[in-house]
Write a structure and sequence with these properties.
Blueprint (H helix, E strand, L loop, with lengths): L4 H26 L12 H4 L2 H18 L5 H30 L10 H6 L3 E2 L2 E2 L8 H18 L5 H18 L2 H8 L5 H15 L4 H21 L7 H4 L2 H27 L9 H5 L1 H18 L7 H35 L18
Antiparallel strand pairs: 1-2
Helix pairs in contact: 1-3, 1-12, 1-14, 1-15, 3-6, 3-9, 3-12, 4-6, 4-15, 9-12, 10-12, 14-15
Length: 363
């Protein structure tokens, strides 16, 4: 099956953008000075757009993958592949974070559902997983579940449909208060997966030429440039993302340009222009980079004395270390784990391992 080289490379860039944004946060805690690059437009907040790029790419890849679901067994295989690709490695690293937390006290039980079950709300409201970047995986897993249910629904008997719907809603509403669950299930940021679904439909049709794809890419890049120049408030902040109006604003400010960039590159590749192959290695390790960099930053926070390094140097050091440790983790942990799971459940895990959240960028 054809690998989508441009999306694989773009996923690596998106991971580095997220690392860069968090490197700014680290510099704030370790230095009382202001980084020079922080005064260059709105670089400090722009890296958060990497998450929105991830979500659009996921919409594309999962939609193209789901077209192989032709009966109930293939729907189950689809779900198993997604779970094996995302969950075991995330649980492994989350277990490390929880273990370190135990050194200073018992873990907060309200954060366990977000960490283990990908349900980021309790009666208190939004709950961060112990591996903080896992909040995005909560929405990823929700999207996977929706795709699985939508496809499997076609093959269930009426009694089976009723039983699944009853069990699903009873289980969810037993875990959290309905109003908090609604903020999760109906969060507008899910629309970014929908952008990817639309782009996958255009990709399958093959009717968008290289010129029109270039216009779409230019539209997305202009949107990114406007974000860098004007900032548009606090769309990057998590508090904004987990509120319904704030998430809708983020979709407009970050999600729409992300769809333009992803769609432009995808459809240009569909039209015969191969883009981004030099960065595919970065894309391979993007899931590891994304999951491990906050752990790396916590270790760096403990090792570096406050005001011992200039803030710009801290940002550069954090970025390099975050990406480098992610590469090491990819080769030492992620790939061996995926090989073990692949041999255990073959052919449940498909394609080359190593891309963020949704696996290899191939339909």
């Amino acid at each position: 099956m054809k690998i989508l080289h441009s999306l694989q490379a773009l996923r690596g860039i998106a991971a580095c953008l997220v690392v860069y944004a968090h490197a700014f946060d680290l510099a704030k805690t370790l230095s009382s000075g202001q980084p020079v690059q922080g005064r260059l437009g709105h670089l400090e907040d722009f890296g958060a757009v990497g998450v929105d790029v991830f979500f659009v790419i996921s919409g594309v890849i999962i939609t193209l993958t789901a077209q192989r679901i032709v009966d109930l067994p293939s729907a189950h295989r689809f779900a198993l592949r997604r779970v094996l690709r995302v969950v075991p490695y995330y649980w492994l690293l989350s277990g490390l974070v929880v273990g370190l937390t135990l050194l200073s006290g018992l873990p907060d039980p309200h954060r366990i559902p977000a960490t283990v079950l990908f349900i980021p709300f309790s009666e208190r409201g939004f709950e961060m997983p112990y591996l903080a970047v896992g909040w995005t995986l909560c929405f990823e897993m929700l999207f996977y579940l929706c795709v699985y249910l939508a496809r499997a629904w076609l093959f269930w008997t009426p009694r089976g449909r009723f039983s699944v719907a009853l069990a699903l809603f009873a289980g969810l509403f037993a875990l959290v208060r309905p109003e908090h669950l609604t903020l999760f299930l109906l969060n507008p940021i899910i629309l970014e997966f929908g952008f990817g679904i639309g782009l996958a439909w255009l990709y399958r049709r093959g009717t968008v030429g290289r010129t029109d794809a270039g216009y779409l890419l230019a539209f997305g890049l202009i949107g990114f440039a406007l974000n860098l120049v004007f900032g548009f408030g606090h769309a990057s902040e998590l508090e904004c993302t987990v509120s319904l109006p704030g998430a809708a604003y983020r979709v407009l400010i970050f999600g729409v340009p992300s769809a333009g960039v992803v769609g432009g590159l995808l459809l240009m590749e569909r039209a015969g222009m191969r883009i981004g192959t030099a960065l595919e290695g970065l894309g391979n390790a993007s899931y590891s980079i994304y999951l491990t960099h906050t752990i790396t930053f916590e270790l760096l926070r403990a090792a570096v004395a406050r005001d011992s390094l200039a803030p710009d140097l801290l940002i550069a050091l954090a970025l390099v270390l975050g990406v480098a440790v992610g590469f090491v983790a990819y080769h030492a942990l992620e790939r061996p784990l995926l090989r073990a799971l692949g041999s255990w459940t073959a052919p449940a895990v498909e394609g080359r391992p190593g891309l963020a959240a949704t696996g290899t960028a191939r339909p």
